[in-house]
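RETRY 2/3 - previous attempt timed out on the joint model. Re-submitting the same 690-residue input unchanged.
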Amino acid sequence: MVQIPNTPAPTPSSAPRSVPTSADVARLAGVSRATVSYVLNNTSAVRISEPTRRRVHQAAKELGYVPHAAARTLRAGHSRMVLMPAPPVPAGPLYSQFVHDFQGALSRLDYIVVQYGASGLHGDDAARAWAELRPVAVLVPGPGLGPEGVAVLKRSGARAVVTLSSEPVEGAHALLLDHAGVGRSAAGHLVARGRRRIGVVVPVEPGLKMFSVPRLAGARQAVQGTDATITELPLAYTEESAAALAARWPGLGLDAVFAYNDEYAMLLMRALQDEGVRIPEDAAVIGADDLMLGRLLRPRLSTVRIALPSGRDLAGLVDRAVRNPGAQPESHEMFEATVVHRDST
Amino acid sequence: MVQIPNTPAPTPSSAPRSVPTSADVARLAGVSRATVSYVLNNTSAVRISEPTRRRVHQAAKELGYVPHAAARTLRAGHSRMVLMPAPPVPAGPLYSQFVHDFQGALSRLDYIVVQYGASGLHGDDAARAWAELRPVAVLVPGPGLGPEGVAVLKRSGARAVVTLSSEPVEGAHALLLDHAGVGRSAAGHLVARGRRRIGVVVPVEPGLKMFSVPRLAGARQAVQGTDATITELPLAYTEESAAALAARWPGLGLDAVFAYNDEYAMLLMRALQDEGVRIPEDAAVIGADDLMLGRLLRPRLSTVRIALPSGRDLAGLVDRAVRNPGAQPESHEMFEATVVHRDST
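RETRY 2/3 succeeded.
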């Protein structure tokens, strides 16, 4: 069996020089390895004199010794690492801000947050790859993880697995994102404004289905029992795609559109205006996310505001789950959708 | 010495059940631990029969065994982990796309990319925290890392340290981001269009200084030897701040503005238009980043296009550096700034 390795082994001559160990620190400081470990890990169980602590720190600094998180994890059986798989699409402004706040809040609770990049794996196979880093908690955005993946993570030492998705997963804490509610609010608002022939933008970009499908379904729910109809409108995030949709707009016979989010709404609104479609007279337009740009458009864009959990609340939840790994998994509704009525509807 | 630990130790009753080890897999499969390791690490050096391989995989699956990246790192002396500190501010659309592509490209080269969240540490102290994860390569966006931090990372086994910043750091490969060039291009364009009293927006948001300061400096360079002047304009990313700036616009006597980037340009352009300032007649406005939104504004926004390295090129560079850790550090100019002239200037 011959396999071609992905990378040739580096030649010995180019290997980095040897990494200083805690034994080197102990030797230089004239103390035991255990003392080095106590001092550098800030262990409170053992009383160590100030001069000794200073000697150890001095020796570590001189040698450039850095404790090995991996070795520490092996000893302690768990890490302070919270692992967050990166989302399958480049993060939008709302999600970037959320991750930024969440990382800051967890860091103040003395955790390290690492975002794990695309591994090319999916579902439970991806979970196996994450488990190799032995995180103490895993926060999974989006669907795909199943009960088997949750079990793999827990068996590998994760004290808390939390999913951010529309449906709960057995064994994991669930932060339920009600994307259907976003579509329901948007379409409900348009119906209440007297619109009856409602288009719903569905981005063709891969990776957005997990948001767009439930939003469309929610819009359909909102018109049930009314005489309003829903028309699905595929749209790419390009000026060409928007211009093509605007050109066939008159033939569609629509009087309103829920444009998926504020960015697609800006794109489509501009294309419609360039075609002479008056907003909101001929077509009411509503977005979602309540980004700054919607307030800067003319007419000002109506939108659905999505209140994500604060990074601090979510960090607190993860911390509680880590401290109490035996607790029953909890489910929380994670955001509320509220219509912000401006001038475009 | 009594120290209060950050987290109470979990009670023994809530500890997760024991993690399966490779010894358990070996026992169940009826093979040696070495064989388990050879099979699961896909070692090509040893010939192992297909039935044995199947038995090992079956046993690992049954027990839910996942190899421990930390243990493997300890054995191999290095990992496949490329560590990327998260930027100090929420990522903008350009950077999100870049990180997304870079992660995908490195994953195809069989690396794992992890973005390391804010640790509350800076400069070389942050480097020490990163070193604890024993990454094989580190890509540091922004300034702060010094030669000492580079040395700590290398001593801890990093084969390549790459900085993405305006200035090279001793011992590290440098991808030089020419933000001054962005400001130079923008102001140079305005001067060439006949403008003489040029405002330059400097965002007040913390964390943007590393971009805004060199952009302002570049704008100043562009007017050297001309009769044009540069006026610094602090601006927050809020409608209120933009409205306040627009209200005092007439008194400033400016005929053009480089608005830091397209998002600030959109904000300021709207406020100026609301004040009755005609664009470009009364004030030429140029942004930077060449985002979609600039093309959707009216007048269409002139901008500075910033060509970031492709994720694939950068992944290739990191991979070469990892394979050849003894090589001299390289410097590469990482982006080119080109003016995209539209209707706002």
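Chain B touches chain A through 88 residues (CB under 8 Å). Closing ticket.
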